[in-house]
Amino acid sequence: MRIMIATAVASLLAAAACGAPLPTPATDLPRASAPGTQTAVFAGGCFWGVEAVFRHMKGVQSAVSGYAGGRTKNPTYEDVSTGMTGHAEAVEVKFDPSQVTYGELLRVFMSAAHDPTELNRQGPDVGTQYRSALFFVNADQQRIARAYVAQLDGAKAYSAKIVTELAPLTAFYPAEAYHQDYLARHPTQPYIVYNDLPKLEALKRDYPALTRPAPLRGTP
Questions:
Q1: 95 in helix, strand or coil?
Q2: Inter-residue contact 119 to 131 (CB < 8 Å)
Q3: Fewest 10 Å CB contacts: which of 47, 78, 114, 145?
Q4: DSSP state of 190
C-alpha cells in the first residue's frame, strides 16, 4: 500500500520536485523528419504521477505504468511492493520523434515528474522500487541521458547530486489494469492531490510548449 501522508509537509515535499524549468539538453537528437514511434522507459517513484505527466505531453502516443529493472518475471504489484524483486515502478512511453525528442522527455522527467536527487525513495514512498532510473533502449538514449545528468550536475541545477540510475532496459512488464490512467480516474484521492497534481501544474507552467491541449485517456 502507498504510504499516505496527508500533511502540509508532504505537500511541500511533493512540490519540491516541481522546480523551475531545467536547461535544454546540450546533447540530443533533432526531431525526426517523418512521424514514427520510439520507446523510452522512466522510473521516478510512484508511477501514477509519472505516467500522468507524460500523458499530458505533446508527441506522446501512449504511457503505460509497469515494472522494470528487476529479476522477477511477470511481477505483480504486491511482488514489487516488497522491494525484493529489484524492479522499480516505471512508465513505458511511446512517442513520435518528429514531435518530441528523447531529450525533451528527459528534461520534463528530471524536473516536473520527479526529484532525481532522492535516493531509493520519492516523497513519501520509500524503497528501491521507488528509485529514480532511466532504462535506455539504445546507445543514443544512453548517450543523451548520461550527458544530461552530467550537464545538470555541472550546472548545479539541484542543491544535491543527481542519483538517477542509468541502466539498459532488459524487460518491461505492464502493471495491473487498475493502475493505468490512475490520476485521471482518481483526481480527488489525497495521495494524488498532495503528490501528483503539483507535477501536472509544473509541466503546464514550466513547459507550455511541450504540454498537449488535452491528455491521453484510457489504457493503451
A1: strand
A2: yes
A3: 78
A4: H
Return the CATH number of the domain spanning residue range 8-23+33-207. Answer: 3.30.1060.10
- In whole angstroms, what is the distance from residue 188 CA to residue 15 CA? 17
- Entry pTM: 0.91
The half-sphere exposure of 115 on its side-chain side, counting CA atoms within 13 A, is: 24
CA distance to 54, 122, 142, 162, per residue, from 204 (Å): 12, 21, 27, 24
pLDDT digits (tens, 9 = 90+) for 138-175: 999 999 999 999 999 999 999 999 999 999 999 999 99
Q: For this structure, is 18 an active site residue?
A: no
Cα–Cα distance for residue pair 23/122, rounded to 1 Å: 22
DSSP secondary structure code for residue 100 in this structure? -
d(CA 187, CA 171): 30
Identified catalytic residue from 46, 91, 110, 145: 46
Task: Compute the distance between CA of residue 130 and CA of residue 163 in angstroms, rounded to an integer.
Answer: 12
Question: Over 50: is that where the pLDDT of 186 sits?
Answer: yes
Report, as an integer, the average pLDDT of 175-194.
97
pLDDT digits (tens, 9 = 90+) for 196-216: 999 999 999 999 999 999 999
Helix 197-206 to helix 8-16 angle, to the nearest 10 degrees? 40
List the one residue out of 25, 41, 11, 20 whose CA is nearest residue 203.
20
